[in-house]
Design goal:
Elements (H helix, E strand, L loop, with lengths): L8 E8 L8 E8 L5 H11 L3 E8 L2 E7 L4 E2 L4 H12 L7 E6 L2 E8 L2 E7 L4 E2 L6 H5 L6 E6 L3 E6 L2 H5 L5 H4 L6 E7 L7 E7 L4 E4 L6 H12 L3 E6 L5 E8 L2 E6 L1 E9 L2
Parallel strand pairs: 2-3, 4-6, 11-12, 13-15
Antiparallel strand pairs: 1-2, 1-18, 3-4, 4-5, 6-7, 7-8, 8-17, 9-10, 10-11, 12-13, 13-14, 15-16, 16-17
């Protein structure tokens, strides 16, 4: 990780989990010959000031992939992986049909099917448990509104029954930032035809107060809702201001995540 920073670098911005510009979740990505020092990668992520910036490095059997928020590196990210696969295919840097990514969460895959991209991710099912002190208060929820609390290795999960309540939550971000996990997923049944469940995701500890659409949380939501709804092919909608649709298929210890993506910007970084 000690290579010098490149003199100039192409940066691509993609709106992931969206079929149109200015929807879904924006991610920046850079394709590198080698990884510079981590401090430089982090500085670029802060400069991009998006929930994730992805850095890719070619290898003989695929691509090394790392993800940084403005505040730090993370172990798993769905929308920046979707954005990466989209650009590699769009720019002809990978012929497919399946792209292999090597990450802090092991090997991930991506493939195109028409206008959709499908990613092979690890399942991250939650384990039921009491919420950390102050979590429900920080979310503005009364315990009587909550139907489930638990966590996986990444996040806290809170389920409620009322989709209208989920849409109007206004958490206390300072309080959420100290819960000791990457973030908090809140989910509910859907109130929309063609959608099976809703969610929102808050990660202020990583300078992401609310993430617009989060692929990695659907690694938790897919097995959670599959168990409750009795079907393994589901559609989730992340009900943020920008919003986005994620198709999910839970199968054993893996989850397939489906989404669309569109390139919105290309530029040159000159550090």
């Amino acid at each position: 990780m000690s290579a010098e920073a490149p003199r100039s670098l192409v940066v691509v911005q993609v709106d992931a989990f969206s079929s149109r510009p200015f929807g879904g979740n924006p991610a920046a990505l850079c394709v590198l010959d080698d990884y510079p020092a981590d401090a430089w990668l982090q500085a670029v992520a802060r400069e991009m000031n998006l929930s994730e910036t992805a850095f890719l490095r070619r290898r003989d059997d695929g691509w090394d992939l790392r993800w940084f928020t403005p505040a730090g590196e993370v172990d798993l990210c769905g929308h920046a992986t979707l954005a990466s696969a989209h650009v590699l295919l769009e720019d002809g840097l990978d012929a497919g049909p399946a792209i292999r990514f090597f990450t802090l969460s092991g090997e991930l895959g991506a493939r195109r099917d028409g206008d959709w991209l499908y990613m092979d991710f690890p399942a991250e099912p939650p384990v039921a448990g009491e919420p950390p002190d102050g979590l429900l208060e920080a979310l503005g929820l009364d315990p009587t509104e909550v139907t489930y609390t638990g966590r996986n290795r990444l996040d806290e999960l809170v389920a409620i029954e009322d989709p209208a309540r989920l849409r109007t939550l206004e958490p206390a971000m300072t309080a959420l930032a100290v819960i000791g996990m990457r973030g908090v997923v809140v989910t509910s049944p859907s109130d929309t035809d063609g959608v099976d469940f809703l969610s929102r995701y808050f990660a202020p500890a990583f300078d992401v107060p609310e993430d617009p659409v989060t692929g990695s949380t659907h690694c938790c939501l897919a097995p959670f809702w599959t168990q409750r709804l009795g079907r393994d092919r589901l559609v989730g909608y992340q009900a943020s201001r920008r919003g986005g649709t994620v198709r999910v298929y839970a199968s054993g210890d893996r989850v397939e995540l489906g989404g669309q993506a569109v390139t919105v910007m290309r530029g040159t970084l000159t550090p």
